[in-house]
């Protein structure tokens, strides 16, 4: 952590709270939609909306399951092995992109990557999708170069935009004004990549944003 104004234990607890709040924010929308669908099914006056309610429940349950599986790997410690199958990462990222306007172009050559690289691929892919609110393509690449893994995630599309909170987080800066949910994910990324001995940065251009990282293999 880079803030020297508070004791480290307080900073760690505050950061954990922001990260938990971010995940809960992602989960609450589909969970609430499932409850709304169930309420419609139980409402005698809304039986004409039964098919619509079942569709809402099904779509929301799939979204919630996709987000939970993704978050377990991206933010948690879901695997005991030191390396992760890239095909599993592609599946997890694809599950999240099913609920985004942007499309995923997964072009990772390696068959396995270590845990820090796995988390970085998932988080940077999601961040790229979030930077494309009206659609576009998020292209995810990773190659091993000697003793390091080089990652590049490109978000390309109309109205591509990187929030200032994300830049602050990637640079390891504490957040002032803005939405903590975007900042905390970026800060988390630079934190675990830095702990692994790597680095991460973003290059922002008109209709194109590139996240790049290098992590020891």
What does this structure look like?
The protein has 217 residues and is an alpha+beta fold. The protein has a single domain, classed as Heat Shock Protein 90 (2-Layer Sandwich), CATH 3.30.565. It is 51% helix and 21% strand. Strands 2-4-5-7-6 form a five-stranded mixed β-sheet, covered by helices on one side. A two-stranded antiparallel ribbon has the order 1-3. The protein is globular.
Largest sheet: 5 strands, mixed
What oligomeric state do these chains adopt? single chain
SSE string, helices as H and strands as E: HHEHEEHEEHHEE
Q: What proportion of the residues form beta strands (DSSP E)? A: 15-25%
CATH class: Alpha Beta
Helical content stands at: 40-55%
Number of strands: 7
Shape descriptor reads globular
At CATH level 3, the topology is Heat Shock Protein 90
Rg (CA only): 19 Å
Distance between the termini: 24 Å
CATH architecture: 2-Layer Sandwich
Would you identify the CATH H-level superfamily? Histidine kinase-like ATPase, C-terminal domain
Mean pLDDT: 91
Write the layout of secondary structure elements.
Layout lengths: L7 H35 L7 H25 L8 E3 H12 L5 E6 L3 E3 H16 L6 E9 L2 E9 L7 H7 L9 H16 L3 E7 L2 E9 L1
Parallel strand pairs: 2-4
Antiparallel strand pairs: 1-3, 4-5, 5-7, 6-7
Helix pairs in contact: 1-2, 1-6, 2-3, 3-4, 4-6, 5-6
Provide a brief overview of the structure:
This protein is α+β, with helices and mostly antiparallel strands and about 220 residues long.
Write a concise keyword list for the protein shown above:
217 residues; alpha+beta; Heat Shock Protein 90; two-stranded antiparallel sheet; 7 strands; globular
């Amino acid at each position: 952590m880079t803030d020297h104004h508070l004791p480290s234990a307080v900073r760690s607890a505050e950061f954990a709270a922001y990260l938990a709040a971010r995940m809960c924010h992602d989960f609450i929308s589909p969970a609430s939609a499932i409850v709304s669908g169930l309420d419609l099914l139980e409402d005698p006056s809304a039986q004409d909306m039964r098919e619509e309610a079942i569709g809402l429940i099904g779509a929301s349950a799939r979204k919630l399951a996709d987000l939970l599986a993704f978050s377990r790997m991206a933010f948690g410690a879901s695997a005991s092995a030191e390396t992760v199958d890239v095909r599993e990462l592609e599946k997890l990222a694809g599950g999240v992109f099913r609920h985004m306007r942007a499309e995923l172009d997964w072009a990772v050559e390696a068959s396995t990557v270590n845990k820090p690289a796995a988390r970085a691929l998932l988080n940077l892919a999601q961040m790229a999708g979030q930077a494309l609110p009206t659609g576009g393509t998020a292209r995810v690449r990773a190659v091993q170069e000697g003793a390091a893994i080089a990652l590049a995630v490109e978000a390309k599309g109309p109205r591509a935009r990187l929030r200032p909170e994300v830049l602050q987080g990637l640079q390891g800066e504490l957040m002032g004004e803005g939405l903590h949910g975007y900042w905390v994910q970026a800060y988390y990324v630079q934190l675990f990549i830095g702990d692994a001995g790597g680095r991460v940065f973003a290059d922002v251009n008109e209709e194109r944003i590139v996240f790049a990282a290098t992590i020891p293999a």
